[in-house]
Amino acid sequence: MSGNDNPYSGSYGSQMTATASYGGAPAATPTATTPVADLIKETTTANFARDVIEASRHQPVLVDFWAPWCGPCKQLTPVIEKVVTEAQGRVRLVKMNIDDHPSIAGQLGIQSIPAVIAFVGGRPADGFMGAVPESQIRDFIDKVAGPAVDDQAAEIEAALTEAKSLLEQGDLQNAAGLFGAVLQAEPENAVALAGLANCLITAGDLEQAREMLTDLPEALAKDAGIIAVLKKLDQIEEARKLGDPNALEQVLAANPDDHESRIKLAKIRNVEGDRETAADHLLRVMKRDRTFQDDGARRELLQFFDIWGPMDPATLSARRKLSSILFS
Fold first, then answer.
1. In this structure, are 162 and 140 located in the same domain?
2. With pLDDT > 90 as the criterion, what percentage of the chain qualifies?
3. Residue 40: enclosing H or E segment and its boundaries?
């Protein structure tokens, strides 16, 4: 299924332990939309406290100590700027020309450049020296700022959680909209596909739900969630052929041991959503006659569990009752 089919539109040198006292104004708290220009800047001795010490209380700040005559510095600059920009605000880069501003580097004991010191929480935390490869800079940023988070993956997970909640509440339109939006971004997201099919089933559109789940790629076709929805469709279609539930109730009132009618009624109550009653009918057959239809009531109940899910309250309740029958 494609989006167009959506029916709802390491070690990097010694640890830095030196401390120094600096004066200056506090830095502004960064936001998720911090402009790239604010991620990389030059600083001075006077502004070091604001640009580095205070700023590092909100996010890690890398300080690049360099000089115009330093060849390795010129090699490092474009690489570290590129990596910091691509980090999209996880760290800031502050550059300090030690020829013009030598005191900070002196207080930190820097004797060779380029030297990059990471400040975290207002203090130097780690660092490296020399024009290291891009991969090592990325690893260094991961070390001081934590690994990058896949924002899209997080957004998709949040959307799926919300969509499931809406579906449980009966808000089919908004649930389907969220499932559909996920499928636009990830056309082969099995959870979204199963969720959208469940929306259609709840709305009574069984034909379109089954069409959505037909001719899927092999990986999707084998997904447990997709298989569960297909079984649910089969159960609904079977239940439609089992007769009038009221008539079956009358039959059972006259003959409580009509196990065939009781299993039929259990299947109908299940697709109606009355899971507790459906399970109780099957459990009653089991208590009376385990040999009926070769233990058919138990096998049917296990199929219900597959559809309901292992943590559904009806599953948990029925499993307890089933255990008491099997092991009594």
1. no
2. 52
3. strand 40-42
